[in-house]
Amino acid sequence: MKQITRTPIVILNFKTYLESTGKRALELAKISGEVAEETGINVVVSPQHADVWQIAKEVEIPVFAQHVDPVDAGGHTGSILMESMMEAGASGTLINHSEQRMKLADIDAVVKKVKANDMVSVVCTNNVETSAAAATLKPNFVAIEPPELIGSGIPVSKAEPEVVEGTVDVIHQINPDVKVLCGAGISAGEDMRAALDLGAEGVLLASGIILADDPKAALLDLVSKI
Amino acid sequence: MKQITRTPIVILNFKTYLESTGKRALELAKISGEVAEETGINVVVSPQHADVWQIAKEVEIPVFAQHVDPVDAGGHTGSILMESMMEAGASGTLINHSEQRMKLADIDAVVKKVKANDMVSVVCTNNVETSAAAATLKPNFVAIEPPELIGSGIPVSKAEPEVVEGTVDVIHQINPDVKVLCGAGISAGEDMRAALDLGAEGVLLASGIILADDPKAALLDLVSKI
Amino acid sequence: MKQITRTPIVILNFKTYLESTGKRALELAKISGEVAEETGINVVVSPQHADVWQIAKEVEIPVFAQHVDPVDAGGHTGSILMESMMEAGASGTLINHSEQRMKLADIDAVVKKVKANDMVSVVCTNNVETSAAAATLKPNFVAIEPPELIGSGIPVSKAEPEVVEGTVDVIHQINPDVKVLCGAGISAGEDMRAALDLGAEGVLLASGIILADDPKAALLDLVSKI
Amino acid sequence: MKQITRTPIVILNFKTYLESTGKRALELAKISGEVAEETGINVVVSPQHADVWQIAKEVEIPVFAQHVDPVDAGGHTGSILMESMMEAGASGTLINHSEQRMKLADIDAVVKKVKANDMVSVVCTNNVETSAAAATLKPNFVAIEPPELIGSGIPVSKAEPEVVEGTVDVIHQINPDVKVLCGAGISAGEDMRAALDLGAEGVLLASGIILADDPKAALLDLVSKI
């Protein structure tokens, strides 16, 4: 667990872009593994559910699911069962991403189930208040992403530094064991540097790397100022 | 396509049982492949999303997704993208299963997208009226499953034959190209025989086989009276 | 019932605009009643749930709910119970509006419950295919509203006449008792005239009247070319 | 506001029982008003949306909505707009009831909107952890209701006193301004007494009173040991 949650951490959310589906997901995961090895930074990939199995077999870095449903094994056709993600090789999961918001009771249930299985939980939030709420549930990470900045190219660490600082402060008060990540609009090394300077211990990002002309160069730039 | 939709057809829904997750999903898929080869019956497996890739690589029989979300490629973290299922090896998908009900407009959108990609669509329904509605959307199959019988062990083909017959009749009027499957409570050869006698062209089933002590024997029994 | 569903019909959806909430909802309902009386046209208002009771007491024209939830009486805190809408004075309900899409099985359940209580059902749809599907469920009306035109000011009857005609044709084949309404972008008399010429028996509209400087004048204009 | 939130408080959730719909809702509200007047206890009623207007006109006690949707005024057909509830006479609302669970980000948005309009917020929760999370959002009340006890007749204050105490403790640490209510299975005076002894400042209840043969007697008994 310690190894998986080592910071600074970069979590690369593959979302459902064609550029990060199937074979291209595998390539992107391999590139991420190379950057992790070359720089020593803890890089995690979060591909689509169908790609977890193959990627987990072929790369050394941690693989996180993008979402798991709040269900236990049984009759839940079409749901994402945490046990299925684990067996496919996932060692953690995003929870409550802005594109997959969950009910409060379900976030709580999934965080507990993830913890009980020694997996890593990353609860995404949209502001300081919901970050505080998420922290009371004791996940490993809270990733603060103001929805209006997601995919905007405008880094939250520059546009709304008070949101990152406010989140770091309030979570420190509630539960200092919960680490803060910062998402939304992050892509360049200086954005990540700014995030770390504000007290975040890593970043959660997607399009800035995935849709880059040269994802490896983009990823290397991202971690260049750590 | 013709090959994939050849009838009589048996679609085995793996749901999210631990007995049909990961390695056990692969075993069950191999058993299903053996039964298909030994009997000549068109057996299709529908495993969890994370298991599609590996199963599609290792078995010859068709693999269907359990669900795809009504989204196109892009920013949809945690959603099931049809293109991802395709690249993983799925050649069709269940739609609107009783455990994953969808909005009418979304069923329409997914059926169209599945068709545009030469995949097979199986729309699940709960009664004669919704079966008629589903048939107007022109999927390959409509699978009628009265919810109260799902997982009950009481076969719809015996308990409510009028539902199967009524569905066959109304769909024949609306669109004779749409084939009717029959689900809910089916497990034995005589249940499948009864379904075919009522005009269904196959069955969609889950627990009766998956949770059987000897799934291969159960599957062989299921197809023994065709 | 005959009286309530008399055509041509104008259904005015109050949505959740402040301009049609509370006192202003009552004023708008009274204006609608005046236009109905002055012109002899069947005008129906569909206010927010909290306003149904007062409006139904004070106006003579029919009042429809904007939505009812697919639940029966019991423990469903926060849900909209059809029986509650009935007792408040509603004589019909919109179902599956584009801003309140429903699952296929739930549309079917609500249409049946509405019919069993001699209320009027208006199922909203987004294209020809879902209109056909809705018609198989035998509601009183299907209201076709291409989502991209809702609130656009561009009338569907002019921008996409083939969608209205196609809907009228397909519904006539499936069930000639189901009447077609036409929504999205309608506000002027010539738009309504065009809708009727295409085979629709009325319109479902909102912002074109509700947000007009002079709603009564707008409503009188709307029905001026019938 | 102070008057509305005065404790001990009894919030009577009318849910969607026929016994508490329309005329019977009004009767029940009047009975509740009588008990409030006779005993001096702060009794609040939470009827269905369609009944708020009439009840708020005819009784003196506070009326809370059962739910409001996380939307602002505009095009949201069928949604429950907070402004509509306010104009109908509601002075507060339940939020995230177990029968109407909400996404974390939406609970936050609704609590803020309710507060900005000087209304009272009651966030329902299912366990100690989600109660802590809810408290960080600074509602007026958190109502802890273990779902398995709702409607059971088994009072949480007796069956799971540690849940009530744990909630009181954790909320006291996070934000002592947030008051704790206790729900689920409460109906008799000793259950309410036990709840207050555990640190709760009131109760949220439904079937125990609404479905009683003599609701007034039941309500009088409930508050008899305060």
Give a description of the structure.
The structure is a homotetramer of 226-residue chains. Chain A has 226 residues and is of the alpha/beta class. Chain A is built from ten helices and eight strands. An eight-stranded parallel sheet of chain A has the order 2-1-8-7-6-5-4-3. In chain A, helix 5 runs parallel beside helix 7 (161-174). The longest helix of chain A has 17 residues, at 23-39. The radius of gyration of chain A is 16 Å and the shape is globular. The mean pLDDT of chain A is 94. Chain A binds chain B through residues 13, 15-18, 21-23, 48-54, 66-67, 71, 73-81, 83-85, 87-88, 94, 97-100, 150-151, 206-207, and chain B through 13, 15-18, 21-23, 48-54, 66-67, 71, 73-81, 83-85, 87-88, 94, 97-100, 150-151, 206-207.
